[in-house]
Amino acid sequence: MTRDIEHGDQIYGEKITYVNISPDGSIVATFNPFHSSILITKVETNHNTKIPFDRTKFFDKVPSRILGWSLAVSDIIDAENNIGLVAISCITDEDMNPNQNIPPRRIRRRVKQFFLNYYVGILLSLFAIYLLPSCIFISTPIMCYYLYYFVRYSLFKSFTRKIYWSSSKGMTKLFKFSFYNNSTAGNTNSSTNYDSEISTYKYCFGGVVSFLKNSTNSSNCTTLICINCIKIQNIDIKLNRNIIITREANDYILPDNLYKKLESINDARHNWKYLLKSRYQEFLVVASEYQQTLYIELYNINTSQLVNVFYRNCGDEDFLDLNNDNPGIFAISTDLRLFAYSHGDNIITIYLIESGLEVVSKRFDNIYKIKFIEFITKDKKLFIIEENIENGVKFHNWFISGCLNDYFPISRSNINLSDNVISTLMNYDEYYHTLTKANGRIVTLEKYNKYKFRIISNISIKTAIFGENESMIDEHEHEYFSHDLEPWNNSTGPIRGKFLNNDKSILLLSGRNSIQVWKSKSQFFKDFEDFISFENSKLVYIFINKFPFRSKPRFQIKDDMTTIITHACKSLAYLYTNHKHVKSIEKHRKFVSSITNIIKDFIEKYPDNWKLMEIQYPLMAYIIYSRSFSLIKYILFNNSQVGSQGKSTGLLHRPQNKYGSYPFYDNLKLNGELGLEDKQLRHNDLEIALKFCQDQDAVMLAYLLEYYSENSMDHIGWMINITKILPELPANYVELLYHKPCFGGIKYNFPNKRFRELSVSEDNLKVYIPLTRLKTTKSLSYMEYRKLGYEELHNIYMVPLPNFTTYDTVIKEKSGGKFRTIFYWLKKTLLPPCYKNLSDKDLSPFLRISSKKNKGAFFNVPVMEAVITSRWEQTKKYWMIPLLLYFLFLLLFAFFYPIYSDIGSGSSESINCFDIIRSIIIMGTFYYIGIYLLIIEFMQMKKYKAKYFTLFNMFDSCSIMSGVIVYTLMLANSIDTTTNRINGEGIVILMTVTTLILWIEMLFWLRLFSKIAIYIYIFGNILRKIIPFFAFMFIIIIGFGHSMFVLFAHPSLLNLNPSASIFTLNNGTTNFTLTASSPDNPFDTIWDAILSAYYWSTIDLSAYNYWPVKIFAFFANIILVLVLLNMIIALMNDTFNKAKEDGKLGLLMYRTELINDYERLNDPFFSESLHNGSQFVCFHRDPDLMRKWIMKSQEFKDTKLYSWYNENVDKRKITFDDGVDINPWYTLITGNESQKFCF
């Protein structure tokens, strides 16, 4: 038996050729392990080059159980030298079978490294304690931190099997090629890279390989992805004379659902096939089913982030088809907007990637099974390969622009595919490496000529263009001189008319700046004079140009209803722009009503076509600009209406993040038409509505907010634009919006059940962060996530604002050489971080809302508490550093000051060198910490300017400065004891006051802990509430005190001399009479009088027998003691209860302030989690903690955001005309003319 490298000791019956296309679709590579070269072909020029290949030299030792090979080719990396890379990976059974024995050497190495770091940290901490005992407060948390991770590591070491598994018998090898090498003899289009076998890089890891698309700013760099059944290898490559790997070990664990699927199959060859079909360039698709719902997860390997989750609800019959080991068939548009998916049946569903929302789901009745789909022709069409019932292949084209003629079957002769290619496609399921795609191009091999491939990239279908040159019987034109046909034009002119069909039922009008098509309400027009505009005719098409036509316009409709609807929307916008200068308001409104009816009638008859059209063209923007309130409401809220096709129209509008993402916005000239200042078209429908939010136009914003929030209970993707606009919403909308059901949480329905639970106090919501990133194998952070059971998942809800806390920012790189790295870490360790130079618009919506003054309603929403808690963990970790430093600062001031009780005594003791060094370290540490904390305060002062000067901030800076100043005075006094220039008594008083201030400041720092923060808020709230009462009480006290001062100021006139008390003492035999001294006047001075009035209950006036004093004292006792004292007790009790209820509000406000400050810092400690966090936040919904919000939301249950708007007073309200049948018009413009195919 001959040894075969393809199957080890088994004979490999067929020599398979592999094909791959570069990410940008410009280069195709073909490879057969039994041939002597790899063929690289440039698609545009058909120039090819060869790389020598010898499979006997591929391995040092040939592995057994080889499954096959994987091929990948990169884009041109070095444009100057026309150089690229080819990757070939040999895949073994171990690479695709997760049930293998794991060598423990990598686990042992990681454990040894961990113990080494642990003991080094302990030794450094003990040495610091020896030099400075106060360092125990810093070293103890460090040791606890190490111990915590040691325990966690021990508890979860069983999981290391999956993380550290890297045993692979496979091999991946990189080859460099260039199209600038010398051409081979006799072939100017062919060259050979003879040095490529030398210029290779070997990587001992086998799997499915692919290159990522090069970014525009990367030079000589690319990224190679290699996937096996356990993990994903992300290898960054920098091309030089030789291949240099700059970042090799970026390994990610496969998503849970994908790993479980591969593990359950337990078939290496099937796993290989599954992985091949699951990935496309940088994307990885994971399909899983649960309770008759198919969940499709889309991951971006380059960013290691979950892009979105798509859903497909299946019936009983469809669900039976889902129970197989097939990831499905999918395609991603080149602009990364659309995701098309089919599970191998005859249904294709189109989704929006940014929101995850389904657009349309189309069942093709004449297709048996779908085998392959791809977006072609700049994403205007979807190319479909079908497997028919006879196991043959057929081809189809689906136009996704929304036109009525949207589906065309294609014969193999129309796309010039040979029988060899067809034979290859028929065996695609078996030889899935012979068909590949990228950037809208499809590449397949011929069966009997393996190095010859075929590219399918553009299938043009020439459809008939409906216009005035077709079906026109009357060559004579008629001129109309009626201003009513163009009421928006003040200047009158002739309007030419002609009939478009033989029965004279359709009339074409060409005016000064418009083209109009009218259909007779009766069967036909008798003649031109029979046309009386709206009285006997219906407008079915209109195009209004912004400027008058320079020459006679030519009427043409290229894409049937797509052209008609886009022109109608633009015409609505034009009519609104010119409505103020119209002479005939009534005629103008009739045109607006008729154009609206064109759009409405199309939506009713063809809702799915409208949905496709609406995601390709920014139609809603024109409708919003035209203030078509009735049409907007119809589109948004008439989804339950049954259309002419016998099914519900469904939801007709989908949010998109910005107009620049629409593929055809250039065709509509959106910027110029609507007067938008944003040249990059970053606006969306919601932002346009907000821009026009004045008077009754504000109802458009209310419509959209109500529509999005109402539908978000089914899918969080409806809220993507509300997230962006929330900080800018008017206050009257915010209050009602925050009490919509979605702000109580959206039921968590993602397929991933692994969460990281954030530690919170008992009276707060439990917050969970779902695992939405591919976790690296180098980190134990994966262990922070635990899988929740279905009982716990029942009460897990999502915050309805995706990406609410995320924002794009640049993290400072730590590279740049050894010395720069050392300098970077010294600066980061010794100095506080500075602030980013970011404006508010660059921050996350959460930070922008928290920066606003009127944000009270924000903190009363339960989901916002979950958002704040999700960002608090890393913020608290950072602020613990200044807290520990301040605590050390306080201890050094209180217990290690340079003088003692004998201040200035000049006494001296014998000291040694160690004491001097110790004292210098103490003083240096004290001043360093003081300067460090002052720098933080001064940077905040510079950043926030006038906003900085609050009571707490001023107290922070003053306490630190007072501590430094008093410590300096103590130091100066201890050094200079002879001159006595500094008064010791004054220093003691300053120390006393400063010590109290520093301890109060310590209390303020402890607000990092929830209980203390709540108590401080309660104290401050009580103080604010009772200060007015104190003012009232003190005025009364001053009044009584002043009165008594006046009364007692003239004792001789009023007989107010107090009688001395006389006491008799009997010793048993003799009585002794004792006379006490006369009592002092408690109202001797004005200040004594006020203080005596304050302490009225302690004053004894029995020595005064003057009756007015008795009466005055009686009333004062009632008012000052009985009434005021009980009033303040009752007031404080009521205030305390209210403040206690609002204690959480104060806690959230304080945490938000710290989060806001922390996330504005440039590269602080623990900032990595800010940029690696999830775009979703979840929480455990506890009705007891949400009772107040639930009660208030019930009050607004039946209140719509647009309830304030009275539609009856809208003069622009449209009355839809359903009395005219325009189906003949649809038939006419679509037609059944023969189509011509061009490849």
UniProtKB/TrEMBL annotation:
The keyword Repeat applies. Its main location: membrane. The chain crosses the membrane at residues 114-132, 878-900, 920-939, 951-975, 987-1006, 1026-1049, 1111-1131. Residues 885-1142 form the Ion transport domain. It is a multi-pass membrane protein. This is Ion transport domain-containing protein. One of its GO terms (molecular function) is monoatomic ion channel activity. One of its GO terms (biological process) is calcium ion import across plasma membrane. It is found in: Membrane. One of its GO terms (cellular component) is plasma membrane. It comes from Rhizophagus clarus. Keywords: Membrane, Repeat, Transmembrane, Transmembrane helix.
